[in-house]
Amino acid sequence: MTDEKRNLREEKKNRKCRVCGTRQAVIRKYKLLVCRRCFKEIAGKIGFKKFD
Ligand SMILES: [Zn+2]
Question: 44 CA distance to ligand 1 centroid (A)?
């Protein structure tokens, strides 16, 4: 395994919601790095009307 691939793997492994800390259904879009549930909560604050 190359170092590059290993880094990618670690990124996936370490990605978690920065709000509640869960590792399930974490969204990395918009560089928010939050889970779906927290995203819904903060979506309104940052201007997203609805996100499915
Ligand atoms: Zn969360």
Answer: 15
* pTM higher than 0.85: no
Instruction: Please give the angle made by the CA atoms of 45, 46 and 50, to the nearest 5 degrees.
Output: 85
- Looking at domain 3-46, does it have CATH number 1.10.260.40? no
Ligand 1 centroid to 7 CA: how many Å? Answer: 23
Distance 43 CA to ligand 1 centre (A): 12
Model confidence pLDDT, tens digit, residues 1-52: 778 887 666 555 568 899 999 999 998 876 788 999 998 888 777 776 655 5
